């Protein structure tokens, strides 16, 4: 596709743009809650102690002008915990090496870990493991949030396991310890390959003075139990002693510089062309009302590279068959990629079979896949059941499940029912997954779900010979629709770590470029076997 049918002066385009700009502004306000950390009072207190905030530490650690792709910024959204989960995670470039960076936010309850912190840190470790990224932990944490210890203690041990397994796989972890790293948290530097501690700042011990007093009767101070200088001179836990926080960051960069790190994946074309059409126009193309269809071709051509001759940049596969799903090959930031994008929402048998073949083809040529979700799920009804929709949907899910090329999923509209699975939703472990602010994900649409419950309740009453409460039914449907609507929103699902972040549509291409670069730290290799396909 080399032409666009978008009229940027039309009433529809301008209305879509206005509504999407409002959503993007609201997204910025939600992200601001995470950026604020514990709030102005606690940030000021932190600075008065001569300390940098988590984000200031990250900024100094990164190469000059290097991007930082933050993950799960809205973790804990909608809960009683601070938005962001009291931890900052993301991919950044340090001394030319893509690294996973994990920074405790000490302005939020001293950087203590709650259940959202645990899930967010676990997801960061998974991303680092799958993409073979060295990890830099910027440590300053008071340990577990004790009121929630029952949700943290048992699963929390996986974090230490992840560090040592990464080391066994020859992927190093660097710990820069700026403040407290106590109790179980002491095993973060204890398990890491390289440890830097800040003099007069780092405190690393299994038990602090009060606990030691209670357990043994011994009187001891912070420095003798776990001070940076003690660990550098006596215990040997500290490999490097930094004079201050800036020096610790300098030492951390030096460690990464000497890793002799190499990427094993595809080297992209460096002379790629920008898309033929402006990403700004995405705001006018995609409606906020998910019932209104839009052409995914118009999204694709604003994401993928242009060609040197200014012509085709998206080679569509099977364009006349199963047209409710668009498939094809392209390049993005010089990386080859296969794309599956929902068109009109519903997946029929033809779309499922087309997707199955396309996924297999991408695996044959070791090409990552990008899934652009806008689906209400697989088609239902007697005609479609008799036509084998279950078999054909299962074929697509089989292909997705056993595909070994990396997947990236972006929910740009609806992502309902088994269609969410077939389009490589969170349960299918895409390497990365993001949502646009207008996105919604659920087992089905709110009205449909409420209607199903109503039909079942009405049938149960009839079976018992009881009168049906119509007023109660109306109230029940309204309540369920409101509840499902709220639980379908991108902020809600992102708060539960069901994606890696809610993003501005205009940033999609840049984010995909960072993801594809990280993916190619390791070799991309397609599947050699699949489960049994029901034909």
Uncertain ranges: none
Give the spatial strand order of the biggest sheet: 1-2-3-4-5-6-7
Straight-line N-to-C gap:
33 Å
Strand content: 15-25%
Computed structural class? alpha/beta
Measured as a percent range, the helix fraction is: 40-55%
Average pLDDT number? 92
Number of strands: 16
What composes the largest sheet? Answer: 7 strands, mixed
Rg for CA atoms: 26 Å
Principal-axis shape:
globular
Helix tally equals 20
Describe this structure in words.
The chain has 20 helices and 16 strands. The chain is globular, with a radius of gyration of 26 Å. The strands form three sheets. Strands 1-2-3-4-5-6-7 form a seven-stranded mixed beta sheet, sandwiched between helices. The chain has helices spanning 11-35, 40-48, 54-61, 115-130, 149-168, 187-191, 209-216, 222-226, 228-235, 245-257, 282-285, 296-300, 349-364, 382-386, 389-402, 417-422, 446-463, 470-488, 490-495, 508-519, and strands spanning 68-71, 87-94, 97-104, 135-141, 173-181, 194-198, 240-242, 314-317, 325-332, 335-342, 346-347, 369-375, 377-378, 407-416, 432-435, 440-442. Helix 4 (115-130) links the parallel strand 3 and strand 4. Helix 13 (349-364) packs parallel to helix 15 (389-402). It has 535 residues and is α/β, with parallel strands linked by helices. It starts with 10 loop residues before the first helix and ends in a 16-residue tail after the last helix.
Task: Write the topology of this structure.
Elements: H1 11-35, H2 40-48, H3 54-61, E1 68-71, E2 87-94, E3 97-104, H4 115-130, E4 135-141, H5 149-168, E5 173-181, H6 187-191, E6 194-198, H7 209-216, H8 222-226, H9 228-235, E7 240-242, H10 245-257, H11 282-285, H12 296-300, E8 314-317, E9 325-332, E10 335-342, E11 346-347, H13 349-364, E12 369-375, E13 377-378, H14 382-386, H15 389-402, E14 407-416, H16 417-422, E15 432-435, E16 440-442, H17 446-463, H18 470-488, H19 490-495, H20 508-519
Parallel strand pairs: 3-4, 4-5, 5-6, 6-7, 10-12, 11-13, 12-14, 14-15, 14-16
Antiparallel strand pairs: 1-2, 2-3, 8-9, 9-10
Helix pairs in contact: 4-5, 13-15, 17-18
């Amino acid at each position: 596709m080399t032409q666009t049918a978008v009229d940027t002066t039309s009433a529809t385009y301008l209305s879509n743009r206005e509504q999407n700009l409002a959503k993007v502004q609201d997204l910025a306000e939600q992200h601001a809650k995470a950026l604020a950390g514990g709030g102005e009072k606690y940030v000021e207190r932190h600075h008065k102690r001569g300390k940098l905030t988590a984000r200031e530490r990250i900024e100094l650690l990164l190469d000059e002008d290097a991007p930082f792709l933050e993950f799960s910024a809205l973790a804990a959204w909608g809960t009683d915990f601070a938005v962001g989960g009291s931890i900052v995670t993301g991919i950044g470039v340090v001394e030319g090496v893509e690294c996973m960076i994990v920074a405790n936010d000490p302005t939020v309850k001293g950087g203590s870990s709650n259940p959202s912190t645990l899930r967010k840190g676990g997801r960061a470790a998974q991303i680092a493991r799958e993409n073979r990224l060295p990890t830099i932990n910027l440590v300053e944490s008071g340990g577990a949030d004790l009121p929630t210890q029952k949700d943290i203690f048992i699963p929390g041990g996986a974090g230490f396991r992840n560090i040592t397994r990464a080391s066994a796989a020859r992927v190093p972890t660097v710990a820069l310890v700026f403040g407290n790293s106590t109790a179980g948290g002491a095993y973060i530097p204890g398990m890491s390959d390289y440890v830097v501690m800040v003099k007069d700042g780092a405190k690393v011990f299994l038990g602090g003075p009060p606990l030691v007093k209670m357990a043994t009767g011994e009187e001891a101070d912070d420095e003798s139990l776990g001070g940076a200088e003690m660990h550098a001179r006596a215990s040997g836990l500290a490999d490097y002693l930094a004079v201050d926080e800036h020096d610790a960051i300098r030492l951390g960069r030096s460690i990464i510089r000497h890793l002799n790190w190499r990427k094993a994946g595809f080297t992209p074309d460096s002379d790629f062309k920008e898309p033929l059409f402006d990403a700004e126009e995405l705001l006018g193309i995609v409606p906020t009302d998910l019932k209104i269809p839009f052409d995914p071709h118009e999204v694709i051509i604003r994401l993928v590279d242009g060609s040197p001759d200014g012509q085709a940049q998206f080679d569509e596969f099977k364009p006349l068959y199963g047209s409710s799903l668009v498939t094809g090959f392209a390049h993005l930031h010089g990386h080859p990629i296969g794309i599956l994008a929902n068109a009109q929402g519903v997946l029929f048998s033809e779309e499922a079979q087309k997707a199955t073949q396309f996924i297999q083809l991408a695996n044959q040529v070791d090409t990552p896949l990008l899934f652009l979700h806008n689906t209400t799920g697989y088609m239902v009804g007697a005609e479609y059941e008799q036509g084998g929709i279950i078999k054909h949907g299962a074929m697509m899910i089989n292909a997705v499940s056993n595909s070994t090329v990396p997947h990236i999923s972006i929910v740009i509209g609806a992502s309902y029912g088994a269609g969410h699975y077939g389009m490589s939703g969170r349960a299918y472990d895409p390497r990365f997954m993001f949502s646009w602010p207008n996105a919604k994900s659920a087992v089905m649409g709110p009205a449909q779900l409420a209607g199903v419950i109503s039909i079942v309740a009405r049938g149960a009453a009839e079976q018992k010979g009881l009168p049906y409460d119509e007023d109660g039914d109306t109230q029940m449907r309204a309540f369920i629709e409101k509840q499902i609507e709220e639980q379908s929103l991108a902020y809600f699902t992102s708060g539960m770590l069901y994606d890696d972040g809610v993003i501005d549509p205009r940033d999609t291409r840049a984010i995909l470029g960072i993801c594809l670069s990280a993916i190619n730290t390791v070799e991309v290799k397609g599947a050699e076997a699949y489960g049994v396909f029901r034909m």
